[in-house]
Design a protein that fits this description.
three-stranded mixed beta sheet; 3 helices; about 50% helix; rod-shaped; disordered N terminus
Length: about 200
C-alpha cells in the first residue's frame, strides 16, 4: 500500500502542472487578445478618421472656387460731345455676367464627429467673384474730329455702369442666394462622401 501511495504523488504533480500550464497559457492568450483588440480598434478608428479627413480635404481642394450664382445683364450707354456745330455721339450695347460664390473652398474649416458619421462645416459668406463684359457692339455713332470720343471714354463709361449694376443686384440679394446655394452644394458633397449628418454654418 505504501508503494502505491508513493507512485501516485508524481502523477498528481504532473496533472497539477499541466492544469497550471493550461490555465497560465489561457490567461496569457486572453491578455494578448485584449491588448491586440484594443490596439486594432484604436488603429482602425484612427485610420478611418484620417481617411475621412483626407477625403473631405481632397473634395474641397478639387472644387476650390465654387460659383453658385450667375447674373447676366445687358445695357446701353450713350456718349455725346458737342462744340459749336460739331457733334459726336456713340451708342454702345454691351452684355456682362456677374459671378458670385465662395472664392476658396480649401479655406473651409470642418469638424468630424467622434463616430465619423457627422460633419460640421464653417462656410465663408459668398461674394462677387467676377463681373466681366462678354460682348459689346456699337449700336450707332457719329464722330467729329473736333470733338472726338475715345475708346477709353467708352470703356470708362461701360465700367461705371457695370459697377453700378453689380451694386444693384447685390443689394437685391444676389449674395444671399449665392450663400444658400453654396450651403446646398457643400451639403450634397459631404453626403456623397458617406456622412449621415451634415451641418453647414456661415
Amino acid at each position: 500500500m505504501e508503494n502505491k501511495k508513493e507512485k501516485s504523488h508524481p502523477i498528481l504533480t504532473k496533472v497539477a502542472l499541466r492544469l497550471t500550464t493550461i490555465i497560465t497559457l489561457a490567461l496569457i492568450a486572453t491578455l494578448v487578445f485584449v491588448i491586440l483588440s484594443t490596439h486594432i480598434k484604436k488603429t482602425f478608428f484612427t485610420e478611418k478618421k484620417e481617411i475621412h479627413e483626407a477625403m473631405v480635404t481632397q473634395q474641397l481642394l478639387s472644387v476650390q472656387e465654387l460659383i453658385t450664382q450667375k447674373y447676366r445683364y445687358s445695357d446701353i450707354i450713350t456718349l455725346k460731345k458737342s462744340l459749336g456745330f460739331s457733334k459726336s455721339y456713340s451708342i454702345v450695347k454691351f452684355t456682362g455676367i456677374i459671378r458670385a460664390g465662395i472664392e476658396d473652398l480649401s479655406s473651409i474649416k470642418y469638424k468630424i464627429s467622434s463616430d465619423k458619421t457627422a460633419i460640421t462645416l464653417n462656410l465663408p459668406h459668398a461674394k462677387v467673384l467676377g463681373n466681366e463684359i462678354v460682348a459689346q457692339s456699337v449700336f450707332d455713332e457719329k464722330r467729329s474730329v473736333f470733338v472726338p470720343i475715345t475708346v477709353q471714354e467708352i470703356f470708362d463709361e461701360i465700367d461705371s455702369v457695370r459697377n453700378s449694376i453689380a451694386e444693384e443686384v447685390v443689394g437685391e440679394g444676389l449674395l444671399d442666394e449665392a450663400d444658400s446655394e453654396a450651403k446646398k452644394a457643400v451639403t450634397q458633397m459631404m453626403y456623397a462622401l458617406g456622412f449621415e449628418s451634415v451641418i453647414v454654418e456661415n
